[in-house]
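Encode chain A's predicted structure.
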Amino acid sequence: MGSPVLIIIGMHRSGTSLTASLLQSAGLDIGSNLVGPHESNIRGHFENVDFLELHRKFLRSQGIQEDGWTLQENIEVEPLYLKEAKKIIIKNDSGKPWGWKDPRTTLFLDFWNNLLPQANFLMVYRSPWDVMDSLYRRNTDIFIQRQPDLAAKIWLHYNKRIINFYNQFPERCLLVNIETMVNHCQEWLKGINEKFKLNLAFPSSDIYDASLMENQEIDAYRPSLVNHYFPQGVELYKELETKSWQPNNGQPHLEWEEEITSTPYRLWVFEDWGKVRYLEKQNRILQAELEQCKLQLSQMQAKQ
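Encoded structure for chain A:
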């Protein structure tokens, strides 16, 4: 048996990067060649390039967009990649507790479970409305731009895979809401150590920046909107909450249910319509000001 393996999985924009950074600080080896910072993750993605590129190959070989925007139930992994996966495992097994983070891993749980039957899984989730809002704010995914409701469908797809795997192997999984983890970080890490027989240290206090979660200003009606059009997503979120890790074996907090009304008010739709048009106008003004500045700069340079 090799070194202890802890694999971090979750839907995109659910807090897996933060989780990986905390565990790296606590002593989990998540690799040395990691994806660097980007405007969508200014402190880094903490994704091991070896596993990231392998997952992208899996997806491309089946004609699937490499970011993992898919609703396909079973994605075949061609035999030619098995040898490469084994090499990556050997390369990254450092002799101490190790693992990796990549949301795409969620699409290949059976594959990695067969290769690493001793591995444990840290499953991170976040409410569907917070994930959707984060994807919309990021505004870099062309598939989400063209089909905004795809954000909800993919949240449901990823988290279904998570809960199904958890139900099959609960002794090897720890399921946690990112907000619970952040609010009870020390107890959460203790829970990981106890369940998986690890000895990770308490992570550095400067790892977490609360402002990066950016869900404190989300419009209150978003949960109702999601519930109206994707009630199965809200039901799945509740199931995740009831089965997730809680400090001191406490009960999950389901206060968000009180925010859900039976039918979204029409006023909300018109408010959003108005906001979008206002922002479009502001954008045109800024673009005009930018063009004016460019013209002035060009004129100044011509005179020099």
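The mean pLDDT is 89.
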